[in-house]
Design a protein that fits this description.
alpha+beta, about 160 residues, 4 helices, about 35% helix, Aminopeptidase, five-stranded mixed beta sheet, globular
């Protein structure tokens, strides 16, 4: 199998990122995302690096997966956690080391930038992903996540 290369995303990657995020939302949550909102959200990261950045995994020059990195300041640790988000690997490339390569690249970049750690969300039923993250040395945290989503109109 040809080796993978990892690179930062560019504006030219927006169509793949749009398709992958839409597919991931459907596969994991059965949610249909508004393509116009999603495209503006992806472009918003590329336009303002303070929000984070995307990485793209390629094999033989073909994009086969990617992810988004964002930052969370930790006052307890006096540094940033890097959040891995919007992970997607095309079906034909799954179980071939794409996420493993992306994770290794992220860890190297985060350490070089002085980050204090990596974090990510995973669906509670996605046992395959949970096993992958554990194999990479990530540990499940003892926190529940709560949110108020102002975009849905449910502002209790």
């Amino acid at each position: 199998m040809p080796p993978l290369s990892i690179r930062p995303a560019t504006v030219a990657d927006i169509p793949d990122l749009l398709a992958w995020n839409s597919a991931m939302a459907w596969e994991t949550e059965h949610k249909r995302l508004d393509p116009a909102v999603l495209e503006r959200g992806i472009a918003g990261v590329l336009e303002q690096p303070r929000r984070g950045f995307y990485l793209i995994a390629e094999r033989d020059g073909v994009a086969v997966g990617g992810l988004l990195l964002t930052y969370e300041w930790s006052d307890w640790r006096n540094g940033d956690f890097w959040w891995i988000q919007s992970v997607y690997v095309i079906p034909a490339a799954r179980r071939s080391g794409v996420f493993r390569a992306l994770h290794a690249d992220v860890a190297q970049r985060a350490r070089a930038a002085g980050a204090v750690g990596l974090r990510l969300y995973v669906e509670t039923e996605n046992e395959r992903a949970q096993a992958t993250y554990a194999q990479l040395g990530m540990q499940r945290c003892p926190y529940w996540m709560y949110e108020t989503d102002f975009t849905t109109g449910d502002h209790r």
